[in-house]
Amino acid sequence: MRTALVLGTGLIGTSAALALSARGVRVHLEDRDPDQPRTAAALGAGTEEPPEGPVDLAVVAVPPAHLAPALLALQRRGAARGYVDVGSVKGGPRRELAALGGDLGTYLGTHPMAGKERSGPLAATADLFEGRPWVLTPTPTLDTEVLNLALELVALCRAVPVVMDADAHDRAVALVSHTPQLVSSLVAARLERAEEAAVRLCGQGIRDVTRIAASDPGMWLDILAANPGPVADVLAEVAADLDETVRALRALESADEAKRGAGAAGVEAMLRRGRAGRERVPGKHGAAPAAYETVGVHISDRPGELARIFADAGRAGVNIEDVRIEHATGQAAGLVQLSVEPEAARVLTQALREHGWSVRQ
Ligand SMILES: NC(=O)c1ccc[n+]([C@@H]2O[C@H](COP(=O)([O-])OP(=O)(O)OC[C@H]3O[C@@H](n4cnc5c(N)ncnc54)[C@H](O)[C@@H]3O)[C@@H](O)[C@H]2O)c1
Ligand SMILES: O=C(O)C(=O)C[C@]1(C(=O)O)C=C[C@@H](O)C=C1
């Protein structure tokens, strides 16, 4: 692929454009808001200049409700040899494009399973898709050349292609992405009017559960409106489990010992089912979940502290698999939790102590 057009230079469009530009593709940037491609171009994602002729691949990264009309407009102006979108829902936009008279031979619906709770080009990174599944939903009428261009896009973004039927994709993301977003929002909504004294106690657990509740409500309404049935099905199952858990907790309050026993069994069963589900979540880069060891390092809230830790770990030859930062309430200090392979934990602890860090293993 030599040339590409990215329409919608927000988080996802700009991240793809950064990856393509870094690998030598000439990327043209377009958006209905002219500030967005200007920012994306300044970050090195490509050029605001319009292409002179059709590009190899057009990548459409606008909100789901705008996908089909945007794809149709690009096809009508002959903007590219092939067209893909990266929307979070796949069945509806394709049916809409077909109903509008769009060409399904040159269009492939795709979905990178990577993102953030932040929107816009300033949140974009070239490595956003690395090692992540990138779903492709080809139909029998799709041109092979377009499928190959899409596979090249995925490879240039260093993602892992996964081929799926569009409606099966929508049911799968209802379970692993859309319902989790709603549940995160529902938990975070409890905090809206909570007492300040309670909110001050927020620890890492609630931060983990509510990170994605910070996402753009407009974008998520668009996503949920394009996949309401499958999401409602999963959420109804969650609601049934919630009802059962509430009943079990009420039974735990009972004066009757037998009822308390049944309540405890109910709560425990739910916790065990949750743990079994969590164990099925793949690890980084789609690999089996790894059992890492955690090394805690106390830091002061000063610029450059994290970079120094990473540099010291690198010099000790230790690969950091994951990192989490806990901020101490009301203090300019925190604890950095470094996840490493079990055999590297001792080496890292010793190396960091030698460099003067206060380490907790
Ligand atoms: N955010 C995520 O985590 C994530 C992950 C994977 C896929 N997606 C999908 O990627 C797409 C983009 O999401 P994002 O997070 O980058 O959103 P974003 O808000 O960061 O960017 C969307 C961009 O599209 C532009 N836009 C909106 N309507 C347009 C139109 N009709 N024509 C031209 N430009 C238009 C906006 O100005 C904005 O710059 C969505 O379809 C979303 O479902 C999002
Ligand atoms: O990590 C996040 O912030 C995301 O929510 C990313 C996430 C997801 O649910 O995994 C969100 C929506 C997208 O369609 C794909 C990826």
TrEMBL record:
Residues 294-361 form the ACT domain. One of its GO terms (molecular function) is NAD+ binding. GO terms for biological process: tyrosine biosynthetic process. SUPFAM superfamilies: 6-phosphogluconate dehydrogenase C-terminal domain-like (SSF48179), ACT-like (SSF55021), NAD(P)-binding Rossmann-fold domains (SSF51735). Its EC number is 1.3.1.12. Keywords: Amino-acid biosynthesis, Aromatic amino acid biosynthesis, NAD, Oxidoreductase, Tyrosine biosynthesis. Residues 1-289 form the Prephenate/arogenate dehydrogenase domain. It comes from the Bacteria. Residues 30-51 are annotated as: Disordered. Belongs to the prephenate/arogenate dehydrogenase family. This is Prephenate dehydrogenase. It comes from Streptomyces hoynatensis.
